[in-house]
Amino acid sequence: MKIWLILQTIAFESASFYLVFDKEMTPTLWVAFFTSHAIACASFTALSWILLPKKYKRPVVSSMSFLFFFNYFLPLIGMLGTACSLLVALYLPRKPNIVTWEECEKSPLPQNPGDEVNTQFGTGALREILLHNGDPERRLLAVGAIRHLPRQHAVPLLQLALKDLTDDVRLLAYASLESIETQINESLSLFKRQLAHQPSANKAYEVAQQYWELCYLGIAEGVLRKHYLEQAEQYLHQANVIQDSASSNLLLGRVLLEQQRPKEATIHLERALEGGLLVKQVAPYLAEAAYRSGDYQIAKQYIAYFPEQKGEKLSQIKEYWV
């Protein structure tokens, strides 16, 4: 079959070129040329299709049409190009790479990771170093890098470092946590003085925000945490008395949720929603409040507003509930 197609291709293509170069062309001879060339292309297309690997044979119409028209509109050159491509692919295939690993240069741990939270030097990598690296110097270097991370990422890692068996690591972690707490307390004192000098909703909100941050970051615990939450609630109520705002109501709702008061939290969260905040900003807290109140249908309605990005905690909750 293959030999017959090869001979037929050579015969008809030779005949077509014989007509072009040996005789003065007339309309009849041009028709004969194109007919002979078409038969040669059809034969060569069938031959090429037979030689193609299985994965390139489907769909049949598309693959054969491409081969035919490519050879038809490029007389002789198209056939030579197709033949060379098939010969090279079939008899000189690329050798598979048997190396399954690549040696990489060891990357040093940065002293100032800055915004590299989502890179190989992010919180996950630093946590692994603190937990599993047996070299105290390496763990000490990790704590030094953690100090430059954003607070919400740094505090949990520093608290983990407080459990380290090496004194130097624990002391550096403690000093770093103490520094963060001092910064927040200094801001708190400043905002309180400004509020006392000139009462305003913004200043009351800033004071509450500092109290909330001490609790949110996990710096305050036990009775002290309870006291800070009460202080945050008090200043947020004061801010709302001066000027009711969506941001104050949102934070107040979160504070009340932390105090296990979901029904009161729902009132302020709904006011935040009415104040102009987007549903997706308030929905997680409204869903939490509804869940804690035992109203699972309402919780499910708010969960429907959660984002759908893969890997996000909220998207995982949404996938489970919805």
UniProtKB/TrEMBL annotation:
Gene3D superfamilies per UniProt: Tetratricopeptide repeat domain
Protein name: HEAT repeat domain-containing protein
Species of provenance: Photobacterium sanctipauli
Keywords in alphabetical order: Membrane, Transmembrane, Transmembrane helix
InterPro entries (UniProt xref): ARM-type_fold (IPR016024), TPR-like_helical_dom_sf (IPR011990)
Membrane-spanning parts: 30-52, 64-92
Entry annotated with the keyword rRNA-binding: no
